[in-house]
Amino acid sequence: MAKVLSRVAPWLASRSKDGTGLDGVTVRVLGAADTQSLRALAMEDAVANVFILAHLDSSGSAAPTSGGASVFGVFDGDTLVGACWAGANLVPVQLDPELAARVASAAHRAGRRYASIFGPAESVLALHSRLEQLGHFPHEVRADQPLLAISGPPAVEANPQLGFGDIADFDRILPACAAMFEEEVGYSPFLGSEDFYSRRVAGLIRQGHSLVHIDAGTVKFKAELGAVTEQATQVQGVWMNPEFRGQGLSAGYMAGVVVLAQRFAPITSLYVNEYNTRARATYERVGFQRLGTFATVLY
User: Fold this and answer.
1) What is the dihedral of CA 249, 197, 264, 119, to 10 degrees?
2) β-strand pairing of 70-76 with 25-29
3) Looking at the predicted structure, is the pLDDT value of residue 244 above 50?
4) pLDDT for 107-146, tens place per residue?
5) Do 25-137 and 151-291 fold alike per CATH?
6) Which candidate, 35, 120, 127, 130, has a CA 20 to 30 Å from the CA of 298?
7) How far apart (Å, rounded) are the C-alpha atoms in residues 270 and 104?
8) Where does the pLDDT of residue 20 fall: very low under 50, low under 70, confident under 90, or very high at 90 and above?
9) What is the C-alpha to C-alpha distance for residues 31 and 285, in angstroms, rounded to an integer?
10) What is the rounded CA–CA span in Å between residue 194 and residue 85?
11) Chain centroid to CA 73: how far?
């Protein structure tokens, strides 16, 4: 499987002889002409970079979006050596921690407010360190989130009752998604406006990326494929209805997630808080293996 950590290679022209200098490195917003370079960079780790690869698959371009999101590219001469998505969130792509301060400064100058930073831990924490110096103070820092993945069949039997969400069940699925979000980050996803989060959930259902078991009108378990490419999927939003917790159901549901996710791509991945020992034990039972470490900074 893939590695999750990237570093500035010692042969880069920008690195001084003593390894301390990065002269000649430039940071700029990528355009359409940079699309193939960004894809090639992200494909160095198709699991860790599934977010940006899914974006490139859907948009076809590295250029800024109509909603104002963009990608900062880090260049050593003419060579793209790192990048960072800058939209509602910051998501580093093969970004060496030594280069993160320059990207963070560019993101700060862009004047956007970011809800989070997530991705490979060393890059995320380096971005956070510089942004904090610039006045961006976090609500929470989750510095140790194992990145897990599985290829091949799960190690336990899949629950056959798990299936793809139907838009007809939107009014049942949305409250379950909101409950998961509030448990995970500590506040409601509807703060300010219900529209954005509702459209996000509806979009996942319509794409076939919502996985759910509804029994007698009650959502018992749900998860989403937050990012999907031909190489990998990234599972997000895993949630068991509190009424059904502690009954040994989680492993079967997660095995079902793997089976359904593998209709899209051979590798199923996710990241989980290190302290969530019960979830980590479930994922291990299903057959997930650790690839590296992510981190998330919440603002």
Assistant:
1) -90
2) antiparallel
3) yes
4) 999 999 999 999 999 999 999 999 999 999 999 999 999 9
5) yes
6) 35
7) 25
8) very low
9) 44
10) 24
11) 19
CATH number for the domain running over 25-137: 3.40.630
Helix, strand, coil share (%) of the chain residues, nearest 5 = 35, 30, 35
Q: Hunting for tokens 């793209």 — which residue is that?
A: 80
Q: How far apart are CA 111 and CA 124, in angstroms?
A: 19
Q: How many CB atoms lie within 10 A of CB 228?
A: 20
Could you tell me the CATH superfamily of domain 151-291? Gcn5-related N-acetyltransferase (GNAT) (3.40.630.30)
Strand-strand pairing, 232-240 and 116-120 = unpaired
- Tokens 């093969």 map to which residue? 94
Terminal alpha carbon distance of the chain: 32
The residues spanned by each domain of the chain are: 25-137, 151-291
* Chain mean position to CA 122: 15
Tokens of 290: 């650790």
Residue with tokens 């050593």: 76
Question: CA torsion sign, 260 to 263 to 267 to 269?
Answer: negative
Say if residues 233 and 227 touch (Cβ distance below 8 Å). yes
Name the one residue in this structure whose structure tokens are 């937050």: 226
Cβ atoms within 10 Å, residue 263: 10
